[in-house]
Amino acid sequence: MLDRSGLLPADIVGVSVYDRDQSAFQFHPGPVFCQLLLADEINRTTPKTQSALLEAMAEGQVTVEGETRELPRPFFVIATQNPVQYSGTFPLPESQLDRFLMRLSLGYPDLSSEKAILTGGDPRVRLRELEPQLTIPELLALQDEVDDIDVAEPVVDYVLRLLQFTRTSEDFEYGLSPRAALAILQSAKAIALLDGRGFVIPEDVQAVFPAVADHRLQGAGRGHDSGSRVLIARVLDAVDVI
Predict the structure, then answer these.
(1) Fewer CB atoms inside 10 A, N or C side of the chain?
(2) Which superfamily is assigned to 1-100 in CATH?
(3) Helix (H) or strand (E) holding 42
């Protein structure tokens, strides 16, 4: 098993290897050619290797040696990271962080859940007993339904005011990007769908805003730390819905 600090971009996206029998180069796809990619401790890889995921996460494709190859659908990237203050880590650049839809913190389980973990047997055995809850066609259909959720102009204007506040506030080193705005709206549409509505309301935007903005906002004077939830809550309090 390679140490993450020794990974190269080709270890992620794949590489062409010369086949002597066929007298031609054959492409060997990397682990990115999957539907669910788990990048464990992603900030232990070098920035050059981290950048191998930029095109995959933004476009659902990778370009190797001048040839573009589509990734399977659906395609998700889930990543964990060590705290940046630990040695041997490389903070993800803003352009990479901006590709992630949300950042979630699971925290500790509650007492009853933790007891169930301790008394439920070997988690690795239970993992193999899990059954799929959705087929791939069903998941793709749900994604299409999210795209069809209506967003009225006043809701779009509300999102724009939130973005503008982060760009002008002295609390943050820099504001939210247009990509962040798209992520807010897409997440809000998903919440509306789960709620059984065909349209987005401001409460949907407020529900997803902390998770979508947390890893994208850096508090002023906080080095590489992201914007705290306290500052993000201040944004929601300061911006009028109408």
Answers:
(1) N
(2) P-loop containing nucleotide triphosphate hydrolases (3.40.50.300)
(3) none
pTM of the predicted structure, to 2 decimals: 0.84
Could you read off the pLDDT of 186-241 as tens digits, one per residue?
A: 999 999 999 999 999 999 999 999 999 999 988 876 554 545 778 899 999 999 99
Distance CA 108, CA 123 (A): 17
Cα angle, residue 103 at apex, residues 178 and 192 outer, rounded to 5°: 70
**Stretches in the chain below the pLDDT threshold 70:** 1-6, 84-86, 221-227
Q: What is the topology classification, in CATH, of domain 135-242?
A: Helicase, Ruva Protein; domain 3 (1.10.8)
CA 206, CA 188: separation in Å to the nearest integer? 8
Q: Do the beta carbons of residue 51 and residue 42 sit within 8 Å?
A: no
| Amino acid code (one letter) for 66 | G
H or E element that contains 185: helix 178-194
- Please state the domain extents for the chain: 1-100, 135-242
Q: Which residue, among 39, 120, 113, 109, has the nearest Cα to 81 in the 3D structure? A: 39
User: How many residues are present in the chain?
Assistant: 242
User: Are 1-100 and 135-242 in the same CATH fold?
Assistant: no
Contact 172, 124 (CB under 8 A): no
Both tokens of residue 197? 């509505």
